[in-house]
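User: Second chain of the day. Same drill as before.
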Amino acid sequence: MAPHERPIRPAASATRLGAWGLVHACVLIIALAAAARATSAEPAAGSARPDRGAAWCAQVETDPLHRYAVHAFGAPTGCQARIESDDPDEPRFGALVVQFVGGARYGVDSSPPETARMSLRAAGGLPDPARARAALAEQAAAIGLEIDWSRPTRNAGVERFDDPTPGFNASAALRTEGGRLVEVILQMAL
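Assistant: Same format as last time:
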């Protein structure tokens, strides 16, 4: 019989373990509990704890909107991230802002249960509007949205395109001011 085919035996009771076996079981439980506390406890003084905000700033560098911003405005001048949870196993909720020369800003904001907004704004206008729109479309596709670009709704300088998928409340938007494209927005609430 192969090891994975062996029958499962019922757990030994305290009377079958005997005093010595019971002591070993208690020592094992205490050791496992101590190991669990050690991995979830705050790091000791002087030890390095990963900076999740810095990691998030580095992660967005691959976003199509961030790449477009680097192309349009040059290297970022700063990045600030606020993360709501310290648990690395939980979804990342919080806010992130990457600044560029001339006041351009790429922002990501997410909050429970599943709401997110990404935007790139430059008060003086986004250079090469066609490329900005293409980056917005690429960003939407990268996160699995199927924006219908053929049916915009227009209202007060905002051209909005929706994802028709049932259950999604997602859209992409282009904001113009004074005839210039000043912001591209992607938002969703699932």
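The longest strand covers residues 180-189.

User: Great, on to the next one.
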